[in-house]
Design a protein that fits this description.
Number of strands: 6
Distance between the termini: 14 Å
Strand content: 35-45%
CATH superfamily: Hotdog Thioesterase
Helix content: 10-25%
Largest sheet: 6 strands, antiparallel
CATH topology: Thiol Ester Dehydrase, Chain A
Length: 139
Amino acid sequence: MSDERFSMVQKVRFGDLDAMQHMNNVEFLRFFETARIEYIGQLAPEHAPTSRRVFGFIFAECHIAYRSPAHYGEEIRTYIWPAELRRSSLKLGFEMRVDSGDRLVADGWGTLVGYDYGEGRSRPIPDELRARIEPSLVG
């Protein structure tokens, strides 16, 4: 995985575990979602995920392939990158790896749709945001 791609580290907490003592499937989505919010914040610092501005993103779809279990105390590095940019949607790829040893625990993608909260419908991604995304596209 390229160091140029956005990444962040999150630690598997006791509350993230299931009865089999590995990270619960639901938590993989939470780790991805946290990294996604951080990525968008770096890409567009003016974006406030808890504020209903005129333009925002709605998380429309997600696919996660579970590759190996994650365990209590492991630090998981989640990589995020733009994989596809369309008129009003952005597909983000991701990988989650144990930071020590680089073991892959999950990979997949999620699709965001540009959304106009004032009008309550999808909206094309603004040109200024598109210009920030395009140089990083990995396809």
